[in-house]
Amino acid sequence: MGGGASSLADRAVLIAQLTDIHVGFAPDDKPEELNLTRFRAVLDRLLRGPNRPDLLVLSGDITDHGDAESFAKAAALLADCPCPILPLVGNHDSRAGLLAAFPQVQPDADGFLHYVVEAAPGLRIICLDTLEDGRHGGAFCQARADWLATRLAEAPDTPTLIFMHHPPIIAGIDWMDPAPDEQWIIRLRDVLAGQHQVQAIHCGHLHRPITTRFAGIPLGVTPSVAPLVAMELSAIDKNSPDDRELITAEPPVYALHRWDGQNLVTHYESVGDWPVLARFHAGLQPMIAGMFAERG
Fold first, then answer.
1. Per-residue pLDDT tens over the stretch 220-263
2. What are 267-287's pLDDT values in tens digits?
3. Could you tell me which residues come within 8 angstroms of residue 72 by beta carbon, excluding any fewer than 6 positions away?
4. What is the radius of gyration, based on Cα positions, of the chain?
5. Contact call for residues 250 and 38 (beta carbons, < 8 A)
6. Which helix (H) or strand (E) holds 248?
7. Is 196 helix (H, G, I), strand (E, B) or coil?
8. Three-class SS of residue 160?
9. Checking phi first, is residue 48 left (phi over 0); if not, alpha (psi -120 to 50) or beta?
10. In 23-111, which ranges are continuous DSSP H helix?
11. How far is the C-alpha of 105 from the C-alpha of 102, rounded, in Å?
12. 232 φ, ψ (degrees, to nearest 5)
């Protein structure tokens, strides 16, 4: 893995998560489509900034139409990524397109694109395939349930993170939410019940920052690289357009999950041209030293 297992054993592991990039959505005639521009800005911040990750998870909707050209554009921007890339399919993607662009992923016997990665000594990552072709919402059939149950049983005492595209929750964004009694959600909850090694579940799909719990496990939704879904939690009537906001031009966001061997902490950063208001110079050194002194 990035940097070698021996080096990761001695320091915290940083796992970046980018989601809902939607390459191929180009409603205007600009020289470069908006979502590629946003993707490029996030990668520049992530790979050239101060917090370079050991792993990069792409948690679905890498493309807007699942086409080979859009996947190729995404892969081209990632060609110089210095760390392993873990791609997942979302409802806008296609399995064939992902496999062509990211040949490190291999389908299982049933054709699903899920897999396990040893992210660092004592930390596993499980990437789940929640795609059902032609469906906006998630899916988790019995074959996928059996696969996940087997993988969890292989290492019941090893801390594990699960990444998946579709959140199995009701977030309150009415037009994006699943029904609360969808069978795939019930099936997933049954598999995860009592799996204390699972430290967290991290998803995409909803284009907003959300935290909750599922099956007793902390669950986070990472906001999108593409434009975000508007913060509107009132019920929507599909037959009565009410001029509510749906999509906004908020800055792109990514997540950085930090695992120190015992604890998982997740940070979210918006990417934009922000002014720096303070730097660590000699005049602030006494303040920084004093804060360290308070640790005792």
1. 999 999 999 999 999 999 999 999 999 999 999 999 999 999 99
2. 999 999 989 999 999 999 999
3. 100, 101
4. 20
5. no
6. strand 247-248
7. coil
8. strand
9. alpha
10. 34-48, 68-77, 95-101
11. 6
12. -140, 110
Q: Cβ(226)–Cβ(252) under 8 Å?
A: yes
> What is the CB-side half-sphere exposure of residue 71 using CA atoms within 13 A?
21
- pTM here is 0.94
Q: Which two tokens stand for residue 73?
A: 């554009």
What is the three-class DSSP state of 158? coil
- Which pLDDT score, from 0 to 100, does residue 234 have? 96
3-state helix, strand, coil in the chain (%, to 5): 25, 20, 55
Q: How many helices (H) and strands (E) does the chain have?
A: 7, 13
Contact 168, 189 (CB under 8 A): yes
> Locate tokens 């059996």: which residue?
146
pLDDT of residue 8: 66
Q: Are strands 198-203 and 217-221 parallel, antiparallel or unpaired?
A: parallel
Nearest to 35 by CA among 62, 68, 10: 62
Q: What is the CATH number of domain 12-293?
A: 3.60.21.10
* pLDDT, averaged across the chain: 94
Helices (H), the chain: 5-8, 34-48, 68-77, 95-101, 142-154, 183-192, 285-293
Q: How many CA atoms lie within 13 A of 39 on its CB side?
A: 26
Enumerate the domain spans of the chain.
12-293
For residue 140 the two structure tokens come to 């988790």
